[in-house]
Amino acid sequence: MRDEESDNRLGTYLRARRELISPEQAGIPPGGNRRVPGLRREEVALLAGISPDYYLRLERGRDKNPSAQVLASLARVLRLDDVERTYLLGLSAARPRTPRRKRPEHVPARVHQLLAHLEIPAFVEGRAFDVLASNPMAVALSPRLRPGRNRLLSLLLDPEEQAFHEDWPKATADFVAALRTTIGDDIDNPRFVELVGELALSSQRFRALWARHDVRDLGGGTTTVHHPVVGELRLHRDKLPVDDVILVVYYPDRGSDSDEKLRLLASLAHAPSEPEQSGPADAAHHPKTP
After folding, report:
1. pTM to 2 decimals?
2. Interior CA angle at 199 toward 125 and 20, to 5°?
């Protein structure tokens, strides 16, 4: 991640997004001997109203501070949404990078109390999708939500987690894009470096998604999962920031089939009265995913 991101992050992002836009999407007639995926550099420059030479300087990192007008034009040509446009602006901002103070992620005591009282699946995750604390219902929903596990490692490397998600390809694309958004310019963070390195070595799916440079917010939404005991569950997801961590809750529509199944799951769960939580070692080093 260090070699790819630090020296020319703007150019790398522009090139990755350019390769994902087809000529037809950009209004360019198909045909000809195209040897590159997506748009050519000169086509992006023409559509954005800038010179090919200037666009080449941007991709090669010779100009890292283009104007807001140029960035807006490039965002339009590359069909960036609001999250992607904000990310692009952040890559080009001319500000010195200062080392960030590394603080251990801490789950407040009041959140542990809250987890103990919630009767729906709920857990706390860190910036790198490490599970820091969870309640019994979360573990009953998925054993991969135990403290000390990492949600991305489980999602990409654990066959049981792949079977758990109805739309695993979309889930992996969303999570990887959300990781890139979370990392931002904090590319020297040891936890991010460790996680990206392990995934790059272990998962071809991760390598393919990471190369796309997608960015996405992974907040509220609705997902369908296949539980091995109670079957299909359609659950809403909300993410609530608490200090430096995120409280994640899953819940069904009241009175729905999934609501009944979740109540059945609660009755089948033999769980301790207190929520599970990771100790200092677990918070720093997650166990390897089988």
Report:
1. 0.81
2. 100
